[in-house]
Amino acid sequence: MNGPKVLEELTRRIYDTLPAGVEQLQGDVKKNIRVTLEAALARMDLVSREEFDVQTAVLVRSREKLEALEKKVAELEQTLASPSKSPAPKPKARTRTRKKPHKES
User: Fold this and answer.
1) Do 30 and 64 reside in the same domain of the chain?
2) Residue 69 and residue 72: Cα distance in Å, rounded?
3) What is the pTM of this model?
4) If DSSP states are collapsed to H, E and C, what string results for 18-36?
5) 11 within 8 A of 33, measured Cβ to Cβ
6) Alpha-carbon gap, residue 67 to 31, rounded angstroms
7) Which residue segment(s) compose the domain that 41 sits in?
């Protein structure tokens, strides 16, 4: 939201709808309308267009990554489900070497 510009435009539109004779109270009325609008807009938890666009781009990238990961998981599941022609090599067992006891002299 363009802050002051939008707020001024809303204030002007509301003021223009008021009945004739309010011109005498113009300053107070405009001020009160503006304060009321500012308070209402502050409670709405709005974001700027720039923040919205940034979050939209983040969401698009996240979706692309999610789709790529889903595709990869599907491929891996298919690989595991299909019978393989040759068994996958088994990992070699690791043997632990024991430390030789320290001889005391």
Assistant:
1) no
2) 5
3) 0.44
4) CCCCHHHHHHHHHHHHHHH
5) yes
6) 52
7) 1-46
Tell me the CA distances in angstroms from 98 to 73, 94, 105, one per residue in order: 41, 13, 21
User: Tokens representing 36?
Assistant: 């009321």
Helix-then-strand count for the chain, H and E: 3, 0
CA distance 64 to 49: 23
Tokens of 18: 């008021």
Tens of pLDDT, residue by residue over 20-44, are 776 667 677 778 888 888 888 788 8
d(CA 101, CA 105): 12
In a domain, 69, yes or no: yes
Q: Which residue has the higher pLDDT, 81 or 46?
A: 81
